[in-house]
């Protein structure tokens, strides 16, 4: 079977970042029109330019996923431009800062939760009604290895990614008989700016040494490339995964959690 998203409209949050840009490019490559959402304007516009340079359609909308009005705004932009939303990649997140729980600043905890949990919740709250009206749609939330496993000094991020699984399972149950599937991808380390920032903050020696230690502990010996995670997200958004819903699918080079 061929994966073909011609005529479909996708919304991708965090579309200026590593995984978001990769999945936006992948969806566009197989025919989807893509609405790109990010707070980082330059990065989002760069993704739009990369898609447009291939002759395909994309539109960047600057929005903060943690703000209800801005989430409604990006949903409205997709509807006004293309009239439907078939695929929703609910992907934007922030890793926060690196502190033990007892030292973690309360305002930074709140910011992590606002982007990673409230942002995913708001995306579901405003995109699912569109899909319910269509009687069709697929949502992929970006969860994490951190949905199953704790990392020292990344408590709020870990808690937020556990919460993304709770939202994924709840949403899947609520729309399972309405033609809509909701899943999550749970990547191990992926070679993006987010991971590089985490490594730079965590390393006691050099970030390169830390990276070498970490990749050595991964069965296939390397981090994922963003495009590999994008392939799984596309699969979960496609009819090839028609009986998969409410799941968190791990992609991590062979580890078991
Ligand atoms: N990189 C990894 O190792 C890894 C592993 C597991 C899961 N993830 C998850 O993958 C997803 C994408 O991360 P990435 O690695 O591509 O990181 P990234 O930092 O490259 O991209 C994240 C994007 O989200 C955007 N963003 C942040 N806050 C926002 C907000 N409030 N509103 C709108 N956009 C906002 C950023 O501007 C950025 O472009 C995240 O959910 C992340 O938690 C990443």
List descriptors:
binds nicotinamide-adenine-dinucleotide; 257 residues; 47% helix; single chain; alpha/beta; 2 domains; Rossmann fold
In short:
With 257 residues, this protein is of the alpha/beta class. It is built from eight helices and seven strands.
Report on this structure.
This protein is α/β, with parallel strands linked by helices and about 260 residues long. The protein has 2 domains: about 10-190 and about 225-250, 3-Layer(aba) Sandwich (Rossmann fold), CATH 3.40.50; about 190-225, no CATH class. The chain has 8 helices and 7 strands; from the N terminus they run βαβαβαβαβαβαααβ. It has a 7-stranded parallel sheet with strand order 3-2-1-4-5-6-7, with helices on both faces. The longest helix is centred in the middle third of the chain and has 29 residues, at about 105-135. It is globular, with a radius of gyration of 17 Å. The relative contact order is 0.15. Bound molecules: nicotinamide-adenine-dinucleotide. Nicotinamide-adenine-dinucleotide binds next to helix 1, helix 4 and helix 6.
């Amino acid at each position: 079977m061929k994966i073909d998203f011609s005529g479909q409209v996708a919304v991708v949050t965090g579309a200026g970042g590593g995984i978001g840009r990769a999945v936006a490019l992948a969806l566009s490559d197989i025919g989807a029109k893509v609405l790109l959402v990010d707070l980082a304007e330059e990065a989002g516009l760069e993704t739009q330019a990369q898609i447009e340079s291939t002759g395909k359609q994309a539109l960047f909308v600057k929005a903060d996923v943690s703000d209800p009005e801005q989430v409604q705004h990006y949903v409205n932009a997709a509807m006004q431009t293309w009239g439907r939303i078939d695929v929703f990649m609910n992907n934007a997140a922030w890793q926060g800062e690196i502190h033990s729980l007892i030292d973690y600043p309360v305002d930074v905890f709140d910011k992590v939760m606002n982007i990673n949990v409230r942002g995913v919740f708001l995306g579901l709250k405003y995109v699912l009604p569109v899909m319910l009206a269509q009687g069709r749609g697929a949502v992929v939330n970006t969860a994490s290895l951190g949905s199953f496993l704790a990392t020292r000094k990344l408590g709020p991020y870990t808690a937020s990614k556990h919460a993304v699984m709770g939202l994924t399972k709840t949403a899947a149950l609520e729309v399972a008989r309405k033609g809509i599937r909701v899943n999550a991808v749970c990547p191990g380390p992926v070679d993006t700016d987010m991971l590089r920032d985490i490594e730079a903050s965590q390393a006691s020696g050099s970030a390169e040494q830390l990276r070498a230690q970490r990749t050595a502990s991964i069965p296939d010996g390397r981090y994922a490339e963003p495009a590999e995670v994008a392939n799984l997200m596309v699969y979960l958004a496609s009819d090839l995964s028609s009986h998969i819903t409410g799941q968190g699918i791990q992609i991590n080079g062979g580890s078991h959690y």
